[in-house]
Design brief:
The complex is a heterodimer of chains A (290) and B (168). Chain A is of the alpha+beta class. Chain A contains 12 helices and 14 strands. Chain A folds into 3 domains: 47 residues, Uridine Diphospho-n-acetylenolpyruvylglucosamine Reductase, domain 2 (2-Layer Sandwich), CATH 3.30.43.10; 116 residues, Uridine Diphospho-n-acetylenolpyruvylglucosamine Reductase, domain 3, CATH 3.30.465.10; 109 residues, 2-Layer Sandwich (Enolase-like, domain 1). A 5-stranded mixed beta sheet of chain B has the order 2-1-5-3-4, with helices on both faces. Classes of the chains: A alpha+beta (290), B alpha+beta (168).
């Protein structure tokens, strides 16, 4: 592994000062499940790393103004046991349950997964359909960026070198809403997604679709929303015919590639299948009002 | 790049060592002679280097030693001895769950992490718990059996220990 220096800030202000002084030579490091691997594979060289695991400000989940706010250095394993995530972030929990392996989940963080910006990042589709925003902090202040704008391409985000992703926030899901996350891998455990999908639908008092969001992973240069498919669902009863159409439109939205995990054609077909299944399940889950 | 003194408590023993920032916990442990922690892929894929770090099972190859400063680390060797093995270690021996043995310490650590959280796992849950540990001898069936046996034995001894196991 190439040599590097390591800074160990103890507080968030100290970390932001270090970043302000040393960016772009300083790279934040949390669980290390990507950064250390990139160094081993010589995909990246880092002059200086900054450990984030001691910053209490970046840990944990809280409710705030009708939103759930998740510290960026919260581990994937923590998502599986947190009661607030179970209640207001069920989709993220579903993604956490099939994220890499338990050994990796104990180190990997949500913020790390997003900043890494893999098209296959498993936390991205759930956060996209939950309308999440990321909070980026620097010495100059904090700015919020919607999830759908944050990742711009393979391993590329809107984060500036002097900024730190400090938290992820999303509005508490509405009562008449339901959703799900699903991924396809080459085997069941410890796999990178070949295709992943998340949906979230909300029904109005008459049982018609009030809003729908669909997100897809590993089928473009970044995790994407399928807006065209979402639009045709709004105002409709969530019946098989319209759900089939949403699946087809989702498959038309994606721009997958052929790679070692699967062909573009396979990915397109699986997008249709996953979207259809997730929408059908979510539609049934929303209990009509008595 | 300057070395720094860090403290690691491994299997109950406190060590103070001067380490460079680019040293992994895996290398630090092996240099301290905890050679039951195996160096496999060094990329978090194989689980041969798994240890409990403050009670959580992690790949020690993906932890920088400085990040572990002040932590409690438990390796397979810290679970039991040849004369007094841990029930999981004993079950691995009884079930023939070790072939070449290279994955065994990491498998046992993942098994320990599972049984600490879930004393009665299903086969599915066992498979999921060791999904980050590769056995290149492919002796998975015996490993799963071993974890099932260990779970039964630990549950049985807990009953005896609490006085609920004996006949009335």
């Amino acid at each position: 592994m190439p040599e590097f220096d390591l800074l160990m800030p103890q507080t968030l202000p100290e970390a932001l000062e270090m970043l302000g002084d040393r960016a772009p030579d300083l790279t934040p490091l949390a669980g290390g499940t990507n950064v250390i691997v990139y160094m081993r594979e010589d995909r990246h060289r880092y002059k200086m790393l900054m450990d984030l695991t001691r910053l209490n400000e970046l840990h944990g989940v809280r409710r705030e103004d009708g939103h759930l706010v998740l510290g960026s250095a919260t581990t994937i394993a923590e998502l599986l046991t947190d009661p607030l995530i179970a209640e207001h972030g069920a989709l993220l929990r579903q993604a956490a349950a099939v994220f890499a392996s338990p050994l990796v989940r104990n180190r990997a963080t949500v913020g790390g997964n997003l900043v890494d910006a893999s098209p296959a990042a498993d936390t991205a589709p759930p956060l996209l359909v939950m309308n999440a925003e990321v909070e980026l902090a620097s010495q100059k202040g904090v700015r919020r960026v919607p999830m759908d704008e944050f990742m711009v391409g393979v391993n590329e985000t809107l984060r500036q070198p002097e900024e730190l992703l400090v938290s992820i926030r999303w509005p508490l899901p509405a009562t008449r809403s339901a959703g799900g996350f699903s991924k396809i891998g080459l085997r069941k455990g410890a796999v990178c997604s070949v295709v992943s999908a998340a949906v979230m639908v909300e029904k109005d008092e008459d049982g018609l679709c009030q809003s729908a969001r669909i997100a897809l992973g590993a089928v473009a240069t970044r995790p994407i929303r399928a807006y065209a498919a979402e639009e045709i669902l709004v105002g409709q009863p969530l019946k098989p015919q319209i759900i089939d159409l949403a699946g087809q439109l989702s498959a038309e939205t994606v721009k997958p590639i052929d790679d070692i995990r699967g062909s573009a054609d396979y990915r397109r077909r699986m997008v249709e299948v996953l979207v259809r299944r997730l929408l059908s399940r979510a539609a049934q889950e929303i209990v009509p009002r008595e | 790049m300057q070395p720094k003194m860090i403290t690691l408590t491994v299997n109950g023993r406190k060590h103070q060592v001067a380490l460079n920032p680019d040293e992994t916990l895996l290398n630090a442990l092996r240099q301290l002679n905890y050679t039951d922690v195996k160096n496999g892929c060094e990329k978090g894929d194989c689980g041969a280097c798994a240890v409990l770090l403050n009670g959580k099972a992690v790949n020690s190859c993906l932890v920088l030693a400085w990040q572990a400063d002040g932590s409690e680390i438990l390796t397979n060797a810290g679970l039991g001895t040849m004369d007094n093995p841990h029930p999981i270690q004993e079950a691995f021996a009884d079930a023939g769950a070790a072939q070449c043995g290279y994955c065994t310490p990491g498998m046992i650590i993942s098994a320990k992490a599972l049984l600490d959280q879930n004393p009665h796992p299903s086969e599915e849950e066992i498979r999921e718990a060791i999904s980050g540990n590769l056995c290149r001898c492919t002796g998975y069936a015996q490993i799963i059996t071993a974890i099932q046996i260990a779970a039964e034995r630990i549950a049985a001894s807990a009953l005896v220990g609490s006085g609920q196991g004996g006949k009335q």
